[in-house]
Structure formats: structure tokens, C-alpha cells
Write a structure and sequence with these properties.
With 357 residues, the chain is of the alpha/beta class. It has 2 domains: 185 residues, Isopropylmalate Dehydrogenase (3-Layer(aba) Sandwich), CATH 3.40.718; 140 residues, Isopropylmalate Dehydrogenase (3-Layer(aba) Sandwich). It contains 11 helices and 12 strands. Helix 1 crosses helix 10, helix 1 runs parallel beside helix 11 and helix 5 packs across helix 6. The protein is globular.
Length: 357
């Protein structure tokens, strides 16, 4: 029995997370996978219930589970300067050491995209680098020694570089092309990126069945736009990954098509790449694709972590069901060229589980 929390987040999170959970429930039932679901209030709902966006006891409870589904967070609208209005996402990432961000990007024949036949998986390290909200034990990685000078600190360790490289090579083994591309800038950042690149090379030696290459980040950014089909599994550092995955999303139709999972060695958090979209919240038109497919990624991660074939089967069912709904194109949300509501699309994917078994 897997134990998973439901954290709806803000704005369209209240609409897309229920669709994700609905589809995951259906897939789990179809494969006989037992899941103990734990709804927990966070974000605005948490603040309304307990005076904090991460109510007391939340972190302790999450630590006892196998993972959770996290909806988008509307932190930009939170009151500034009030410590009770924390953004839960970076807190979860740093507290639980969720160092590996899995982000797949694929095109579909009948949906608009800049290129056809795109099938990419990014592995982004998310606890180090230049991202100042979590790269130090205490304090922030930026400071100003004078009013006209700002200095940022990039943190890179061999340990985390090795972990993200191992995750990338292990993931590549499950993909048809079995190819890993390490993206860095060791020509300039000789120590930090040099350390990351060296760890990738050392890990590559243990995976002789996986092709390995290195590409400088600016060159990669250009090639990704021109011919994304030449890549398969990409491993990179925090800031580069943050930028490049948004670029990849642009190739396939935007962030609404960009699912993700953040994972440590023991816990995983399904989280779509897109924001909370307050401008369309409550209108029932949000695209649930990214959230539902984040649930699919969570199933796949849980299958590897717990050696649970039923979780792998459930993930496959979700993917096939989504492919069927997109191919039929009768229950797609407006951003995908249809006129269906969020719930209609979620219902269609859930129904398709039975058809693709």
C-alpha cells in the first residue's frame, strides 16, 4: 500500500489536481495497486485553516509518506514580508532534499509544435547551483558588499552531481535511444561546472550500454531549437535546467504540456511546471495535461523506488490513455484547440484507462 498526499495548491491547482488524482485512482484500481490518499491543506487553504501556508505538522506528516501530488502555487500574490506566507515548493525541495527534477517533453502528431517527433527527458539538479533560494544551509547565495555591487554564489558538490548523473543514466536505460547529454559550461566555470562534468564522466563509465556526450550550454540552447530530435536524456545543473526546460516546453506548445517530478532518493513530488494561472482560475478551462502526466511520472518513480510493477503498469496506462484522448481530439481544452472543460478532459482520460488496458 503506497501512501500519497494530495496538496492542491492555489488557483487552477484546485481544478487540475483533482483531475490528476482522478486519473491516478482509476489507473491504480485497474492494476490492483493500493494507494492510501491523504488530502492536506497548504498554501492559501493552509493559511485559512492554520495561519500558515505550510501548517504545523505538514513536513512531519509528508516525511512518513511515499510521495505527494503538489498543485501550482500562487506565491507571487502572497503578502510580502510575512513569514506565515511561505512558498511551499522551495521549502519542500530543500527540506526533503528533492535534488532530481524529471521533466519529459514530447510532441503529438495532431497538436501544434515547432518540431515533430520530439521526445526529450531532462534531469535537472535542483538543490545547488546559482538558485539562491536553497543552495546554502542558512542564508542566501547573494549579497551586496556595496549598494552598487551584487555577488552571487554558485554551489556545486561532487555528491549531488553524481546523484543527478546516476539518475539520468538510470532513466536513459529505460528509453529506446539510451543516450545521455551532459550540459554545462566548464570552459568558463572551470571548478563548478568542471566538477559537475567530471562526475558525469565517471558515472558514464559504469553505464557502457548508454551513449554519452557533453555539450556547452549555449551551443545546446541553439541546437535544441534547430534539431531537438538529436537529443534524448539531458542532465544539467539547476539554473541551466530551469532555462532550458522552459525552452523545451516552447517547442511543444508551452508549459501546459510540461509535467514534472521532483525526487530525493526516498521521496517524490509530482508537480507540473506551469504556474497557478490566477487569470483563468475558476473558469474551468485550465489544461490538466501537465498535472495528469506528472502523476504518470510519479507512478514510474514509485515503481523504481519500491520495485512495484503495478505502479509501472499504472503509469503506462495513464500515458496510453492520454495518447488516446489527444488522438481523438474531442475532449481537449481550448489551449489545445478544443472546447472541453478541465473536468471533461480529466473524465475522458479516466474513462480511457479501461479502453487501453
Amino acid at each position: 500500500m503506497l501512501k500519497l498526499a494530495i496538496l492542491e495548491g492555489d488557483d487552477i491547482g484546485l481544478e487540475v489536481v483533482p483531475e490528476c488524482v482522478k486519473v491516478m485512482r482509476e489507473a491504480a484500481a485497474a492494476t490492483g495497486l493500493g494507494i492510501d490518499w491523504r488530502p492536506m491543506p497548504i498554501s492559501r487553504a493552509g493559511h485559512a485553516a492554520a495561519g500558515h501556508t505550510v501548517p504545523p505538522g505538514t513536513l512531519e506528516t509528508l516525511a512518513t509518506l511515499d510521495g505527494w501530488v503538489l498543485g501550482p502555487i500562487g506565491h507571487r500574490e502572497y503578502p510580502k514580508g510575512d513569514p506565515s506566507w511561505l512558498n511551499p515548493h522551495p521549502l519542500f525541495r530543500t527540506h526533503f532534499g528533492l535534488f532530481a527534477n524529471y521533466k519529459p517533453f514530447r510532441s503529438y502528431p495532431n497538436l501544434p509544435s515547432l518540431h515533430k517527433d520530439i521526445d526529450l527527458l531532462f534531469l535537472r539538479e535542483t538543490t545547488e547551483g546559482f538558485k539562491t533560494d536553497g543552495n546554502l544551509f542558512r542564508g542566501y547565495g547573494e549579497f551586496m558588499p556595496t549598494e552598487t555591487t551584487a555577488i552571487g554564489i554558485c554551489v556545486t558538490t561532487a555528491h549531488k552531481s553524481r546523484l543527478i548523473a546516476e539518475a539520468a543514466f538510470e532513466a536513459a536505460r529505460d528509453r529506446p535511444r539510451r543516450k545521455v547529454t551532459a550540459v554545462h559550461k566548464n570552459t568558463v566555470y572551470r571548478y563548478g561546472d568542471g566538477l559537475f562534468a567530471n562526475e558525469c564522466r565517471e558515472v558514464a563509465k559504469r553505464f557502457p550500454d548508454v551513449e554519452f556526450e557533453e555539450v556547452i550550454v549555449d551551443t545546446f540552447a541553439m541546437r535544441l531549437v534547430m534539431k531537438p530530435q538529436q537529443y534524448d536524456t539531458i542532465v544539467t545543473t539547476n539554473l541551466y535546467g530551469d532555462i532550458l526546460t522552459d525552452e523545451a516546453a516552447g517547442l511543444i506548445g508551452g508549459l501546459g504540456m510540461a509535467p514534472g517530478v521532483n525526487a530525493s532518493e526516498t521521496l517524490a513530488m509530482a508537480q507540473a511546471t506551469h504556474g497557478s494561472a490566477p487569470d483563468i482560475a475558476g473558469r474551468g478551462i485550465a489544461n490538466p495535461y501537465a498535472m495528469i502526466m506528472s502523476g504518470r511520472l510519479l507512478f514510474s518513480w514509485l515503481a523504481r523506488r519500491h520495485d512495484e510493477p503495478r505502479a509501472a503498469q499504472a503509469g503506462t496506462l495513464v500515458e496510453r490513455a492520454m495518447e488516446r484522448v489527444i488522438a481523438q481530439a474531442t475532449t481537449l481544452t481550448p489551449d489545445l484547440g478544443g472546447s472541453a472543460r478541465t473536468q471533461d478532459m480529466g473524465d475522458a482520460v479516466a474513462r480511457a484507462i479501461d479502453a487501453v488496458r
